[in-house]
Amino acid sequence: MIPQVQESDYLYSTPKSFSTRAIHTGQHAEQIHGSVNVPIHLSTTYKQKAPGQPYSSFDYTRCGNPTRAALEECIADLEHSNHCITFSSGCAAMSCIINICKHGEQIICCDDVYGGTQRYMRNFTVKNHGIEVLFVDITDPENVAKAVTEKTKLIWIETPTNPTLKIVDIAAVCKIAKEKNILSVVDNTFATPYLQTPRDLGADITVNSGTKYMGGHSDVVFGSLTCNDKELYDRLFFSAKSQGGCPSVFDCYLIMRSLKTLELRVRQATKNAYIFAKYLESNPLVEKVIYPGLPSHPQHELVKRQQRGGGAMISFYVKGGFEETSKLLKALKIFTLAESLGGVESLIEVPSVMTHGSVPADVRNQLGITDNLVRVSIGIENVEDLINDMEDALKASH
Ligand SMILES: *Cc1c(COP(=O)(O)O)cnc(C)c1O
């Protein structure tokens, strides 16, 4: 009953020396006692030798901190970028970027974007700051070319999207952006730098909610952005330090610790997800499976070109309606019924009444977010146990 697979089925390539970089970049043995791990520097302020002469580059922790600096160097390396800024949440990273746009300018954003991003843009960027936002289906790059005007300053890409796992051709969209001198941003939360490095595909800025796979244990809320251009970094840093959404030093320590196992976790979760998606496709009580790593995904060729694997998020339609779906989720024993994703434990949810409940019903239907659509974040448990749990619950629900 458990589908047999080979590594090349679910991983198309691997980034060079990923774990070596995750374990060592920015993380040198400390100089006084030789402690192997980067210390947690709690001091908010730094003594100066004379006015205007600090001991090193740090003067006040909102603007810079040694523990955070070590983590930022590491994340920048993993995203193949020169610079990184970290935040108290993915949303703080997102608003820091959007807030470099000015009154009267325009943003193009993918229509299937993370709910919090859409909420910030609709309620603050548009209403309070006078910046126009066009929500466009950019899975067809032609739609981007059509929407661009001389006011367009930023294109916001998220791929794979949530919960319908559509794929945006990053290279094609960033090429259009570059030609028109427009900044391109990719939300890389679902794929992680292990499976996708947007900068290699032409993106100016990559943003991550570290709350998900980077943290990986559902116990830290965290965000980051990376970029390569120094002048752009200076603008973003000015925005970040002015708005003040810096992360706690404890959280930086936890993220640094989690990054050391990111490769192991993402590989295992991706393998589990591929096997699990194949199992779901073979189950007659499942109407349809959406998983970027399966040949049945309409953009599977693009996935293989742009990502190193299909990731660990799966969406599927249960045969029947909300009643069967609800019964199924209540009958599961190993999957936890909860929002969020990217942790070592498998989570399951119904987007229409949970993560995407605030999306208007007509927009939900248009995007395919119906009451029998289920989203799973596959963890690193034994996949046979996950399949058996789902098999029993599907039987009990129909
Ligand atoms: C969770 C999430 C965010 C927001 O991150 P927070 O850390 O919750 O603020 C942004 N984008 C995507 C794709 C997410 O899944």
Describe, in plain words, how this protein is organized in 3D.
The chain is α/β, with parallel strands linked by helices. It folds into two domains: 7-11 and 263-397, Aspartate Aminotransferase, domain 1, CATH 3.90.1150; 18-259, Aspartate Aminotransferase, domain 2. Helix content is 38%, strand content 16%. The protein contains 15 helices and 14 strands. The chain has helices at residues 7-10, 18-24, 66-78, 90-98, 115-126, 141-147, 170-179, 192-195, 230-243, 249-259, 262-282, 300-306, 322-331, 361-367, 383-397, and strands at 48-50, 53-54, 83-87, 106-110, 132-136, 152-158, 183-187, 205-209, 223-227, 286-290, 313-318, 336-337, 347-349, 373-377. The protein has a seven-stranded mixed sheet, sandwiched between helices. Strands 10-11-14-13-12 form a five-stranded mixed sheet. A two-stranded antiparallel ribbon has the order 1-2. The longest helix is centred in the C-terminal third of the chain and has 21 residues, at 262-282. The mean pLDDT is 96. The structure holds pyridoxal-5'-phosphate (PLP). Pyridoxal-5'-phosphate is lined by residues 89-91, 114, 116, 158, 162, 187, 189-190, 209, 211-212, 221, 223. Residues 89-91, 114, 116, 158, 162, 187, 189-190, 209, 211-212, 221, 223 line the site of pyridoxal-5'-phosphate.
Topology record:
Blueprint: H1 7-10, H2 18-24, E1 48-50, E2 53-54, H3 66-78, E3 83-87, H4 90-98, E4 106-110, H5 115-126, E5 132-136, H6 141-147, E6 152-158, H7 170-179, E7 183-187, H8 192-195, E8 205-209, E9 223-227, H9 230-243, H10 249-259, H11 262-282, E10 286-290, H12 300-306, E11 313-318, H13 322-331, E12 336-337, E13 347-349, H14 361-367, E14 373-377, H15 383-397
Parallel strand pairs: 4-5, 4-6, 6-7, 7-8, 12-13
Antiparallel strand pairs: 1-2, 3-9, 8-9, 10-11, 11-14, 13-14
Helix pairs in contact: 2-3, 3-10, 4-5, 13-15
The structure holds pyridoxal-5'-phosphate.
